[in-house]
Structure formats: C-alpha cells, structure tokens
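It is worth pausing here to work through a concrete case rather than discussing structure prediction in the abstract. The textbook approach is simple: state the sequence, then state the predicted structure, then interpret. We follow exactly that order.
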Amino acid sequence: MDIETRHRLQEAISLARRGKRRGERALLKLQAQIEDARDWMRMGDAWLNCDRVDRAIDCFERAASRYLDEDYDKHACAMLRMILDLDPEHADARERLA
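Step two, the predicted structure:
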C-alpha cells in the first residue's frame, strides 16, 4: 500500500469512526485495491477500528490465505488465531488451525 493510499485509509477510518457512511464506503473502495497479505491485515485492523468485526474477520481470512500461499505459515496461524479471538466459534479458522 503506497503512502497516498495509507493516507486515504486513515481518512476513511476517521470518517467511519464518527459514524459516517462515507467512511465505510471509502474503506470498501480501498479494499478493492488490496493485493498482498500485509495490506489485508491493515484493512482488517481498519475495520476493527470502526467496530466492524464481521468485515475485519473477512480481511484477516484473506490475509491468512495469502500468507499460506506465500508459505508464511507462522503469519497465517497468527491471523487465524486473531480470527478466533474475535469469534471463538469460527469454524473455518478452527479447521485450518487443526
């Protein structure tokens, strides 16, 4: 994620925290530009900052998948554990960690 995109991400988070739909729409638009696992993780953190756990989990799942594709198993396990911290009943994360 380049510096300009990170700046837009921070603006979107700020708007979304204040309950502005415009901020959530901006986050969704930025989400379409994400390609690597670290950026999916950042986006998941952004959704958590906006109290959108469901969207954060989706992003963390994508990050875990990317990390597995790149053979970064420890990073993928960390993402899956984070998902389970947010939703202990998340079946897919439990299965993938087993």
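Step three, interpretation. Helices lie at 3-17, 21-31, 37-49, 53-69, 73-86, 91-97. The chain is about 80% helix and 0% strand.
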